[in-house]
């Protein structure tokens, strides 16, 4: 199935993102470089020095713990050289790999690094940032499966210390139970795929999930990093951010106002963004409210601090020679606010590349769509009605026969109404109940007859309803709801290597992918 999905169907509420990928100047003016300005972005990045040797040492140690492959070690060595660059993407540490879009983002990082290296004729290293400093527990504690019945099932776990950063989350008995429940979806024949999602005895939650990504992508050279790997290198960044708190807030306020003047919403309130978090007395992550009280402490104890969503990209790009960031639609809108912060910190803003998107379709569902003359685009529409879609394939004679009999039954019952009411007015309600019950029985019989009639043409209304749930579960795009582990249990993991991408990483594309018979 060769089909591309119109991004307006997937992101109808995010006009800024739609304008950005369409290269409209009204959106591009909020960034230092347009997404195709590779040479300019590379020149700006290489003109600024970075702590390459120390960074490489830390990355080596971290990735060695994950059992890094030769390709990862070679990329880390390249990062230590003065003429290399990197592409970075990242995501919160979602349970068992999180939603499908996370694996698409990692894949986008790899493909972009490869393409940019070829175009710039220099080494470009793929980096994946696991945002384990976040404390938004409900973003990472669940996976969604589509059961054989077509119902969505959620497997989740709780944590008594929620509010602490995820990097402090141990693998608890509750997490082990949730893992066992989720991995029970794997058939015995997929044991090797199931093993990709298992932790090592020494792992905490974040290290375990880094290990999952290493098992999937280490052979391709994807370098993994957590904030705790490099946080102590921010001893200059954190006090500077605290000392500049007023200016940061003023810059973000100006950006928000500029977005509104351009008729875009500000994605985040500038009065509560662009700052640092530290830890409260109970160990939970709390926002710094008085920057002056923390400047000296942050210089000598950087591990006690972490940036929020708007300041995090500035910190990351102060440590890495980033030429491009791989971002989702909402993240690109966030980045529209922070160009002044890059300038204030003297850090080149990288180009922003939208991650690739995919909708996965099983072979039998692809065949069903073809028989019905439908596309995935049709099913993604909010107005898609499976019953209406199959109606043209139902025998007109069958539909007419049921319509006639339904009318005849009602006609036969109607003469009873008047004498019944004359006997007892309360019998009118019983007559109505009888009529409704008979009509429901006829409806049920008709539905079964329609299913049998459609089956002769290889069309299943039940499967079409299920396909709608798979493509747009809970009314959202598949990639945001269904989990990686769900697809791995159904189709294995080999399909990841076959996902096609645009030849130009600056061009957004959302492709429909039919999972081949070898993935079944």
Report on this structure.
This protein is an alpha/beta fold. The protein has 25 helices and 13 strands.
Features:
520 residues, alpha/beta, 2 domains, five-stranded parallel beta sheet, three-stranded mixed beta sheet, 25 helices, 49% helix
Oligomer state of the chains in this structure? single chain
Distance between the termini: 16 Å
Low-confidence parts: none
Question: Which outline best applies?
Answer: elongated
Overall residue-averaged pLDDT value? 92
Helix share bin: 40-55%
What structural category do the secondary elements indicate?
alpha/beta
Task: Tell me the strand order in the biggest sheet.
Answer: 6-3-2-10-11
The total tally of domains equals 2
Radius of gyration computed on alpha carbons: 28 Å
Range of strand content:
5-15%
Topology of this structure?
Layout lengths: L2 E2 L2 H4 L4 H7 L3 H4 L9 H9 L5 H14 L4 H10 L5 E7 L8 H21 L3 E7 L11 E5 L5 E5 L16 H11 L7 H5 L9 H13 L5 E3 L1 H4 L6 H7 L1 H17 L14 E4 L5 E3 L7 H6 L5 E2 L4 H8 L2 E6 L1 H7 L3 H7 L5 E4 L2 E5 L1 H10 L3 H5 L5 H5 L5 H28 L3 H29 L5 H11 L6 H4 L2 H8 L18 E5 L6
Parallel strand pairs: 2-3, 2-10, 3-6, 10-11, 12-13
Antiparallel strand pairs: 1-13, 4-5, 7-8, 7-9
Helix pairs in contact: 2-16, 5-6, 13-17, 21-22
Summarize the structure in short.
This protein is α/β, with parallel strands linked by helices and 520 residues long. The protein has 25 helices and 13 strands. It is elongated.
């Amino acid at each position: 199935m060769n089909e591309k999905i119109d991004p307006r169907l997937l992101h109808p509420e995010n006009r800024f993102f739609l304008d950005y990928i369409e290269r409209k100047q009204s959106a591009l003016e909020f960034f230092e470089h347009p997404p195709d300005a590779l040479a300019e972005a590379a020149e700006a990045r290489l003109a600024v020095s970075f702590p390459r040797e120390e960074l490489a040492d830390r990355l080596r140690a971290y990735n060695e713990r994950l059992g890094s492959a030769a390709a990862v070690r070679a990329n880390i060595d390249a990062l230590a050289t003065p003429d290399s660059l990197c592409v970075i993407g990242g995501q919160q540490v979602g349970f068992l790999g999180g939603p499908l879009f996370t694996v698409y983002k990692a894949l986008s990082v790899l493909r972009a690094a490869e393409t940019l290296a070829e175009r710039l004729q220099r080494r470009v290293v793929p980096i994946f940032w696991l945002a384990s400093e976040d404390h938004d527990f409900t973003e990472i504690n669940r996976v969604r499966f589509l059961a054989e019945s077509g119902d969505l099932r959620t497997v989740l776990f709780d944590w008594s210390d929620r509010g602490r950063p995820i990097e402090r989350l141990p693998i608890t008995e509750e997490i082990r139970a949730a893992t066992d429940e989720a991995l029970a979806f794997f058939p015995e024949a997929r044991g090797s795929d199931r093993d990709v999602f298992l932790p090592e005895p020494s792992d905490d939650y974040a290290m375990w999930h880094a290990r999952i990504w290493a098992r999937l992508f280490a052979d391709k050279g994807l370098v993994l990093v957590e904030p705790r790997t490099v946080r102590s290198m921010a001893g200059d960044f954190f006090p500077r951010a605290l000392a500049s708190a007023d200016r940061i807030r003023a810059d973000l306020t100006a950006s928000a106002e500029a977005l509104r003047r351009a008729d875009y919403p500000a994605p985040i309130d500038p009065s509560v963004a662009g700052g640092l978090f530290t830890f409260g007395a109970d160990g939970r992550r709390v926002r710094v409210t008085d920057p002056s009280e923390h400047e000296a402490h942050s210089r000598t104890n950087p591990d006690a601090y972490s940036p929020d969503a708007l300041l995090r990209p500035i910190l990351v790009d102060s440590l890495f020679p980033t030429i491009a960031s791989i971002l989702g639609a909402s993240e690109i809108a966030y980045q529209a606010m922070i160009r002044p912060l890059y300038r204030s910190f003297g850090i080149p803003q990288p180009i922003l590349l939208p991650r690739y998107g995919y909708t996965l379709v099983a072979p039998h569902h692809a065949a069903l769509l073809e028989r019905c003359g439908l596309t995935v685009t049709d099913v993604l529409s909010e107005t898609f009605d499976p019953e209406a879609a199959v109606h043209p394939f139902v025998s007109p004679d069958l539909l007419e026969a049921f319509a006639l009999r339904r009318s005849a039954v009602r006609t036969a019952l109607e003469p009873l109404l008047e004498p019944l009411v004359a006997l007892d007015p309360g019998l009118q309600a019983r007559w109505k109940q009888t009529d409704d019950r008979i009509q429901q029985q006829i409806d049920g019989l008709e539905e079964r007859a329609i299913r049998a009639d459609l089956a002769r043409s290889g069309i299943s209304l039940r499967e079409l309803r299920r396909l709608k749930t798979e493509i747009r579960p809970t009314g959202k795009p598949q990639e945001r709801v269904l989990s990686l582990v769900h697809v791995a249990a159904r189709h294995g993991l080999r399909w990841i290597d076959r996902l096609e991408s645009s030849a130009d990483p600056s061009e957004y594309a959302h492709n429909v992918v039919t999972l081949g018979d070898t993935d079944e």
